[in-house]
Amino acid sequence: MKLLRAILLRLATTAVTLAGVAVIVFVVIRVVPGNPIAMMLPPGATDEDIARLTAHYGLDRPIPQQFLIWVGGVLRGDFGTSITNRQPVLDLVLGRLPATLELSLLALVIAVLLGGAAALTGTRLGGTRTEAAIDVANGVALSVPDFLWGLVLVLVFGVLFPIFNISGRVTPSLDLPFVTEFYLFESLLRLRFDLLADLLSHMILPALALAIPLAAIVAQLLKQSLKETMHLDYVTLARTRGYGETRVITREALPNAILPTLTLVGVQFTFLIGGTVIIERLFSYEGLGNMAIDAVINRDLPLIQGIVILFAALFTAVNLTVDLTYAALNPRLRHGG
Amino acid sequence: MQMNRRTVLKATAASAALGLAGLPARAQGIDELVIAYNVNLPSWDPTVGASAVNPTLQGLYQSVFDQFILQQPDLKPAPGLITEWGWNEDRSKVVLKVREGVTWHDGSPFTAEDVAWSLARAADEKTGNPIQFIWSTLGNFQVEGNTVTADVVRFEPTIFKWMYFLTGYVLPKAYYEKVGPEGFEAAPIGTGPYMVDKFERNAFVRLKANPNYWGGKPEFETVTIKFVPDAAARVAEVESGNSHVTLEMPYEEYDRLKAGGLTGVAHPISDIGMIFLNDVEPMLDPNVRKAAVAAIDKQTIINRLLSGYGVAIDTLQTPEYDAYDPAIRTPYDEAKAIELLAASGYSPDNPVRFKIQTTKGFKPKDYEMIQAIVGLWRKVGIEAEIEVYEIAKHYELRAADTLAPAAFYNWGNSVGDPTTSTGFAMFGPSPHSVWDGEDLAAMIGPLWGEADEEKRIAGWKAVDAYIAENALVIPLLQYVQPILAAPGVTVTPHASGALLPHLMKRA
């Protein structure tokens, strides 16, 4: 009951958060320099042409009125029409969202696997050169931002040893039988491993670029948590029962040590999604981030608004999911303790 | 394994065989040409919206659609869908002869009705054609056989040039009316050398050769154009062999990759770099303006910053433009610049100060060029403060006439007519101009509707000479477009800057 009340309260605050984001983004992109009408003015435009174009895109009205018109449309599911693409914003954004979600999730899985493996190995081989090497690797991974990793990966695995593809989401010549934009997911469901391989070949480098810094964070935090947990009495008891060190770490220490890491991963996932903007651009990956950059360059106000609102909704959904998962895993939270 | 001469020879032979077998496809026959392109394609309609006036997208449009009149790689017109064009004797009508035997990509016949409809649609302000102000100078379109005639509502000397310029494309009347704008966006058809096979927004477009193209079927049956906006990624694409052709990379990378085995062509295009001068202090002082021009060593800037890839210009016309006059010169002269500034009381110890605005990374070495110019100015007594802004802000400030006293910009003019370079850039009432001098506006005004072509061109040359004499703008250079290609591909560059797959051949 308490959990249900907490969920409802979170949903209410989410709505308020999204409303606040909508106001801020609407106002900010209209006051920052850059007028979309000025950018598309024909060479011989007259004052009447400028006025006509401005009215055509609804930019002649006062900002509060523009906002109310836009909000009214959003509540009816109409996010407006993209100035550059001349398509409904909602269609464009929802069409690109699955690509970004799949990339983000793949990056998250890689980060957790890499980071988890590094943490477990470092804990198991604590005090050895291996642990020291892992610490050094973590430091390097954390120091280098994701877009630099992207450039390194392009150079190494795209040019020097061309194993993977460095642009796009899928090989253009392939015929795709998918009905949704969740290509990776559908290729698995349809057991189309040829398409799965092609998709992964395109996604692995951008996913790695996103994952490496997060993997380092996961490794560092989890290793620290494990080290602290390893000194607790119940772990010592497990050892005295004759359990091997690996079992002590994975079965006894890990379930408790992982909780703080889980929270951090959830928070960091939102940053990871934000990081897709630059990475998608670098790898010409057809996700929301790549579209966002074009929208900003072209001052495509309706599209910028739609993308920002969607990202905000995504972030709040991720945070809510993390909180619920944490509550599910931590009995003390489930029972209000 | 013990190494002896036999082992070494065997290993060498094996390595050579492996190396030959592993030669990338680019050195052998290319079935599907892959191009790494530098921009995304937002919309397929080449006649409406912001995309229609984006010069970088015209190469994509010209692969699928034909313009009314063909523009050759040297910018000169040639018979296209319109085979003959002109005015009647009293210039009250235009007469267009339409090519016969052409089909749309869906197999339906192309007719003069399509031409008339496309022109009428372009002239209709409701359809949102950004160049409607030009197309609306024609009206009352009539079709008789393969001839289209139209009344001249207002005489526009450049009307035929616009038929191979921005938004000058023929679209299919019957198909467009049947499927509507949304249907056309989803499945565009044209009469062009390639048909759209598959399009993924922000990703790629896959084109199939039009076997019935009136200009001859293109060499490559299938062309995939990947949208790769990042320059480093484009370089990696061709270096790895994932793409066969790309454009717009740093000149240093162009030289490196050419030396490394790729082929390339770097050709001057119709894009120019220039510095707008605003009619505000201190630019109202002609000595300051003339000194600013004289103090810039354009050729050295091109040689040092752009690896020699660029052509110094002294007017807003490049050598390919119709009103280019090589006699108009504004040579580099540091001593003259110092003298001019001294006449107005300025010197290196007492410099004139103003702001110069520039983009950074929008054009090759834009910011670095301005840095170099500011350094040259400092030597003669001009202290300029650099302000970096985005191109979007430049457009906004220009439209509001609130640019700084100096502002760097690039200007594209793929049709090469002086109205679309000097005209729009320097005519005060135009929203694109910055210098609002009434004397200049008075010189330019009569040229808009001048019917005598010789007189018109001579008039524009006189305007350019006046501008140069009074330093009302600072032309800098004509850009050179670097194109890299795999050894198996020959690229014919187009002076408009459009990268056209149908001009590419197997080497």
Give an account of the 3D structure:
The complex is a heterodimer of chains A (337) and B (507). In chain A, helix 5 (89-124) runs antiparallel to helix 11 (245-282), helix 5 packs parallel to helix 13 and helix 11 (245-282) runs parallel beside helix 12. Chain A is built from 14 helices and no strands. The radius of gyration of chain A is 24 Å and the shape is globular. Helices cover 76% and strands 0% of the residues of chain A. Chain A is mainly α. Chain B is α+β, with helices and mostly antiparallel strands. Chain B contains 16 helices and 19 strands. In chain B, strands 1, 8, 9, 10, 11, 12, 13, 14, 15, 16 and 17 form an 11-stranded mixed β-sheet that branches. Chain B has a 4-stranded antiparallel β-sheet with strand order 4-5-7-6, with helices on one face. A two-stranded antiparallel ribbon of chain B has the order 2-3. In chain B, helix 9 runs antiparallel to helix 11. The longest helix of chain B is centred in the last third of the chain and has 18 residues, at 453-470. Chain B is globular, with a radius of gyration of 26 Å. Chains A and B meet through helix 2, helix 3, helix 5, helix 7 and helix 12 of A and helix 4, strand 10, helix 7 and helix 13 of B.
